[in-house]
Amino acid sequence: MRGAWAGTATAAAALLGAVAAAPAPPGWTAGAAEGRPYVYLEGAAGSVLEDTLSVTNPGPKPLTVRLSGQGTPLAFAARTVTVPARTRADVPFAVTVTADTVPGEHRGTVSAEAGGREVRVPVHLRVSGPSLAALTIEKVRLDGSGTVHYTLVNRGNTVLAPSLSLRAEGLYGTVVDRPSRALPLTLGPGERITRSEPWPDPPALDSITLHLRATAPGAPAATARAERVFVSGGAIAGGAGVLLAAAGAAALAARRRRDRDDRAAPAAEGTGLPVEEGQLVDATAGADR
Known about the structure:
By secondary structure, the protein is of the alpha+beta class. It is built from three helices and 16 strands. The strands form four sheets. A five-stranded mixed sheet has the order 2-9-8-4-6, with no helix packed on it.
């Protein structure tokens, strides 16, 4: 590969001579060869996979492009390429899949930069072998404003498109129940992302148990929970007022009962029987019988 590219570069140099590179025209392009939207490579761990990057220079002067790669171990035949005017150059590159690379999907980019402008071409690499889809929810936290914080982690070797549902239980039942919905993200193997879910109207006084459930095609559902007690100053003041009012009502009721008891007639002396108004009791009546 290096020899083939070296020959191409030498021929281009012979045709152009010692022409200095001019500022990059705005219309230059870079992309996967044959007009593909991205580079797709597939192979086993321990293999070397090859493809080409097409750089097109429609301008009237040569274009010098610097090449780089991210996310996957990319190697170029040349890191700097000079493309003649009105010419397309197909630049070979290789991806080395190390022996310890886990099976599944991996992502990267090939970048071409010229004249302060950068073009990135996605690289999709699939390493053959058994696939595993696994998703977890970690570091779940419910803050005082009601915002839910959590981290999604892809523990498998396939790309995941997660969905999330949320339910919050209080002392008197369910206070929030959000059905499962697709999240605007994807997670590559080993990737993690921290997100937050707003709760615009959290309770002023309640003990909340939060339940999160994340799903993704092919992966077992992941669940997590968090707990928090909400106590606001207004709720405390209101609760204290209710307690004082209840205590005052109880004291008034007790005082009224005492007043009724005081107005009742005293018990008859020596008999233990109550004395009704206008009634006389003969204390010797029992003795005569």
